[in-house]
Here is the input.
Amino acid sequence: MSTAMTDIPNTSVPLDLDQINEQLKDASPQEIIQWASDTFGDDCAMTSSFGINSAVMLHLVSQIHPNLNIIAIDTGYLLPDTYRFANQLETLLNLNVKWYSPRISTGHIEALHGELWKNEDDASYQKYFDYTKGEPMQRALKELGVKAWIAGLGARQTQFRSTLRTVELQNSIYKIHPIIKWTSKEKFFYLKEHGLPEHPLHEQGYASVGDWHSSRPVSADDGDERDTRFGGKRQECGLHLPKDPDENASRNSSSL
Here is the structure.
């Protein structure tokens, strides 16, 4: 597919997602990112957790839209290796990273509510998510005027992500998934081909990295690498889930 032949829609009106996804079905990650950059310009941003294979998407984007805003959420509970890895990639790829943190400190949150992540009930987790990830992310999207959000999600990561198309609508923002079809092997080969680093905790057996209290190395008892997150009780951190059930039902009803 040649993006030069792609009609660039007027983003002041809703995009026809069925048409766009058909148009991009055979596109490479680079072509999808180019389409997003051409379509949304500076109203486009990318999120990065600076996780195990984050260098893949960060490198892809840096080659096409070097000044793209990269949103990183600092929950206050990230592992020290993650902060150092983020700094390494920021320097290596000359990234335009915008860090967002909770409005109140982790100590303040714990003084008010205790260590919420230790509770298994959904209400406690939702409160933890709202404080540490949800509010900072919504503030970032608003302050940066984001209309389109590029994310390095993979279809094989979680059950929810296996249902996603290349372009979706989430909470009135277009979500673009350039490597949704890539396997772990494809990401590994891309890293090696371009001499990019993996998260340092990969060598210690981590397949997925988030907050220190919700991440651990893979064990022989794990059926899936995502079982190493949130004690195996949750696959999603919440950032990539639709808030509106009707919107999700409408997306799932699509024939594509």
In short: The helical segments are 17-23, 29-40, 54-64, 80-93, 106-113, 122-143, 184-193, 245-252. Residues 122-143 form the longest helix (22 residues).
